Amino acid sequence: PIDYSDEIAQISLFLGAVSVVIFGIGRRHGEFLMGVLSLILSLAMDAQNPHSESRRQNTLSQIPQTMDAALARFKLDGQTTTYAVCPACNCTFRPKANTNTSDGRYPLNCSNRPRPEDDPCNEPLLQRSPVGQVEPIKTFVYYHFHDYLAGLLSRPDMEAIMDKPCDDLLSSIGSAPPRIIKDVWDADFFRSFEGPTQSLFVDRGSEGRFAFTLNVDFFNIEGNLQQNASTSTGIISCACLNLPLD
Description:
Blueprint (H helix, E strand, L loop, with lengths): L6 H15 L5 H22 L4 H9 L5 H7 L6 E6 L6 E2 L2 E2 L6 E2 L20 E3 L5 E3 L2 E5 L1 H9 L2 H16 L16 H5 L19 E9 L11 E9 L6
Antiparallel strand pairs: 1-2, 1-7, 3-4, 5-6, 8-9
Helix pairs in contact: 1-2, 1-4
C-alpha cells in the first residue's frame, strides 16, 4: 500500500497517478515521467550525500517501473472476490480466509447436489498451475457492487449527474409524457414506480435514488461456425441507468 512507502516515493507515485488518471496522459508517458523522476532523485541524493547508498536504493526500489504497479499502490481498482466454479455443475464456492497466507482457501471437491435426491457432485475444483501453485480449475470474478457504487459517488460532479434523472422526471410528472421515448426515464414505468416509502421512486428527497439493470449474456468465444470448438463464456453485468447515455 502507498502508506508504507517513503514520503519521496509517495510524491513520485502521486505525480504519476495524477498525470494518468486526472490529466489523461498515456500510461507509457506516465512511466516515462516516473522514470525521469527516479533519475532526478538518484542524482539529487548522490549530490547531497554520496555515502547514503542504502537510503537511495531503498527509496528508488519503492517507485515502480510500470503505471499498473503504481496505480495498484493506490487501490484504485474495484474490490473483487474470485469464486471457484465446479467444472461439472457450475456451482460456485466463495474462498474462505486462510490464517497462514493472504490467499483464499477453496474446498477440494464440489459438494453441490444438483437435485435433492442426487449424491454430491464431488468434481475436483482445484488444479496445480505450471509454477506449482494450487488454484481453481474454473473461476468467477465478482466485482463488489457497493465498492463500485461508492467509487461513483466519491466524485461530487458524478453524484449531481446521477441525481438529475430523478429530479427532471419528478418535475415533469404533472405534464404529458413524451410521445417519443429516447431514454429509459421517459418510459411510463418510472412515472408510477413506487419507492421504499410508498412515494414515487423518483421523489428522492435528500437521498440518492439509483436504478440498475442486470444483464446476463453467454457467447462462444471460438465463433459460431458449426465445426468450431464450443467454449461458452458468460458475463453478468450491472449498469446504472442514472448515468447519461454519452
